[in-house]
Amino acid sequence: MSKPSNQPEPSLESLIVQALHGADEESGALIAPLQPSTTFKRRPDGSEPQGRSYIRDHMATGQEAEAILARLEGGEDALLFSSGMAAATAVIQSLKPGDRVACPSVMYWALRSWFLEQGETLGLGIDFFDPEEGPEGLNAVIRPGETKLVWIETPVNPTWTVLDIEACAGVAHAAGALLAVDSTAATPVLTQPLAMGADLVMHSATKYLGGHSDILGGLLVTGRKDQRWERLRSLRRNGGAMLGAFEAWLLIRSLRTLFVRVRRQSETALAVARHFEEYPQALEVL
Q1: Is residue 275 included in any domain, yes or no?
Q2: Catalytic site residue from 52, 100, 148, 182
């Protein structure tokens, strides 16, 4: 039945709670079944009736989760990875030797270590800026024509410094670079970087998106499907950094309650911060 023309579109929160109105066509179940199969049916001529051949190329359950995540971030497409680090390092590995990356000197420790350990091996130049200096600090280290990627976190882990995404996007794009934003700490409930000029958004799904301490995963969302995005898809497929089908199914479960959880978590965090703001033994509240 078609929707009346005067009926408003459901809110994003309603769409996510309902997993984009997803349902199992065969049974009518509103919770989509887990599809762990690694291979898929073919016709006698070798063609694929469902457009799927192997799980590293097209995971049925993963594609459902990716559609929800792309809608959450207002992007054109999403890719699930086996971890947040796998998603982040795929972006770096998509660069070419000689390219430079600008990133904060304070950031998630494992990725910063990876930059320091692997950047030279990959032939990349890494330029760090102080996130406390914001876009001005970024502008001071960026090299027009040489810097190909600006990587930022906001809020920064672990100091919770907030960076101006729109201003950083302006600096990056003026220099001919892409802006990738690790938005793990903010979640799409609080921040949508693509709407502020970012080219890529990265999340560790292990944190707020998963929300139940039972998923290890990561993802990328793009503002446009282009040659760079297809290279990232190829890196995931050929590198084998896929999220498992069960984890993807758990992630869909988790996303249904994302808005409720993040709002309550934000309220609780603010209450704790206000309490310790006047605490005599506390030097500073971040």
Answers
A1: no
A2: 182
